[in-house]
Amino acid sequence: MLIREFHEPDWAQVWPIVSEVVRGQETFPYDPGLTADEAYDMWVEVAPGRTVVAVGGDVVLGTAKMGTNRPGPGSHVATASFMVARTARGRGVGTALCRHAVDWACERGYAGMQFNAVVASNAGAVQLYGREGFAVVGTVPGAFRHPALGRVGLHVMYREF
Predict the structure, then answer these.
(1) Alpha-carbon distances of 28 from 115, 116, 125, rounded to whole Å
(2) 2-160 fold
(3) Taking the mean position of all CA atoms in its chain, how far away is CA 70?
(4) Measured at the alpha carbon of residue 10, what is the angle toward residues 85 and 66, in degrees to the nearest 5?
(5) Could you give the CA distance from residue 60 to residue 53 in angstroms, rounded to a whole number?
(6) I need a surface site. Which of 15, 54, 85, 106 has the fewest CB within 10 A?
């Protein structure tokens, strides 16, 4: 697996991943009616942010975006988001993308990384981030409407560098 910069032609494989994750309504608080154009504008970061893909050969296995969490006085903290193709889950793609994002932020001198809305019922992501040094610093109770579980919490997770 190789993690590299996103290129425009990658969108043909990234959009189905984003679409499936968003329409599943289990892990991201994005509108399930999101169009491909809206998703592109939301997912593909402009500098100084970065969007990457994890590829196995010519197949996109997952994608990540990273950048500054908040402007101005909060600009010393980075953020990132990750999506992995259903067929590639459980193969270390999410871990590799998370480590890539952390390395990217450290290299740019950020003081830490914050994930703003980790769905509490997304045990795989919560465990992965915990293994990578992130801690839940707060939870907004019932802030996410899960299609099967009802209202569940959204964690704010943070790792200081």
Answers:
(1) 12, 11, 11
(2) Aminopeptidase (3.40.630)
(3) 16
(4) 70
(5) 6
(6) 106
